[in-house]
Amino acid sequence: MCSPGQTGRYVLIQKLRDKERQLVANERPLESLAKLGQLGNEVQFILRRTGPTSSEGSDQGRAPKLPRPPDPEPLKHKEPKKALTFNLGPSTSPQTRVKQVEKPPRDSQARGVSPSPPSSLAQAGPSKDTLYQQILRQQGQLQSLQGQVESLERELSIWERAPPPTLSPDLLEKMDHLQQLLGRNETELAHALHWENEFQSEVQREKDILRQKNELHLALDKHSRRLHDTDNQSEQLERDIKLLFETKRNGVLQARPSVEESVVIAKEQLDNHQHHRAELQASIEEIEKELRLAEEELQAKSMELDDLNKELRQCNLQQFIQQTGVTPAQSNQQTEEIDFTLLKPDGQSDEDSNSSILEFNPHTTAKQILGNPRSLQNPLVSSLRPEGVYV
């Protein structure tokens, strides 16, 4: 702090709450104040005297004391400043201010020392005046910034007190409808994904059942061939035995031990073949039983696939109606056309497509499928579309 009208060397101190910081020569107080933001209201700038000037220090002992003029009234500002304190002495113009010097020591007056020349006072004056004018300019800039801050604060308080924008009832109703539609679409999408996964798993099970059925069919063919060969061998042995009995009864050939042994061997072979035939017959019956069970399971899976196809088509139809806004009659016609085109393979005529559709009738038995080789050449293949799953 400094007393009014006191000359000397000063430093500018920036005080924020309980912290003080000395500003350097090239530092700008307004920029540092702007960087602090809302804390700028609590900043105080203080001029602190550190010592006399160079000319004042040299002439302090020789300068006589001049009469001190009365302190002029300080400048009156329109608006009070917030937390900005400047102790700069009197706020009068330099023309009306009288230079003051400190009182010399008494011993120098006793010795009759002559007063110092006025050049030193003239040299100390302009620096103080320039500093004072600069501080006045900065004070005006601070006042303008303070006015801008206050206007911004008033505008901010108006915006904070303003109620949130209200929406019209039509927009609110439309938003509610869109939210409900979004929730329905998400539910239907999850439902469609679930049934699509179920459909894929059922298709995989059907493929496994068809593979097992083909394996059983191959095993049945193999056992049938072996049974046929056994029948041929048994018939040949029976003919040989009959021929031997006839020759023995007619006396054409003499009874020899080798013939009897051959007859015994033939009987043993016949018994073995008959036993083997019985085993093959039992295995064939078991295979036919497994084949009937596989056919029943295949029919049940076919019915489940039909139900899944119906549900998937219904989901696709609803999704198609929601996306395109087509009426149910038009969407049913388009769905039937798409299904018919998907059921007919590329390069296949209408008769072939009809025959393939008839071949893959869910009520067709496994024997009919195995008996028709075209049904195995053109299996049912699902087609995935962006709109859904069509079969």
What does this structure look like?
It is a single chain. The protein has helices at 29-36, 54-59, 106-111, 119-161, 169-250, 257-324, 328-343, 350-359, 366-371, 373-377; strands spanning 9-16, 19-22, 43-51, 383-385, 388-390. With 391 residues, the chain is mainly α. The chain has two domains: 9-161, no CATH class; 176-326, Helix Hairpins (Orthogonal Bundle), CATH 1.10.287. It has a three-stranded antiparallel β-sheet, with no helix packed on it. 3% of the residues are buried. Residues 46-127 are annotated as: Disordered.
Pick out its properties.
391 residues, mainly alpha, Helix Hairpins, two-stranded antiparallel ribbon, 64% helix, rod-shaped, disordered C terminus
Question: What's this entry about, in short?
Answer:
With about 400 residues, this protein is mainly α. Mean pLDDT is about 70; it is low at about 65-125, about 340-370 and about 370-390.
Q: Mean pLDDT, rounded to whole units?
A: 70
Kindly report the oligomeric state of this protein. Answer: single chain
Q: Report low-confidence residues grouped into runs of 5 or more.
A: 63-124, 340-370, 372-391
State the major sheet: 3 strands, antiparallel
Gap from first CA to last CA: 94 Å
Supply the number of structural domains: 2
Radius of gyration: 58 Å
Number of helices: 10
- Judged by helices, strands and strand pairing, the structural class is mainly alpha
What sort of overall outline do the alpha carbons produce when their principal axes are compared? rod-shaped
Question: How big a fraction of the residues is strand?
Answer: 5-15%
Count the E strands. Answer: 5
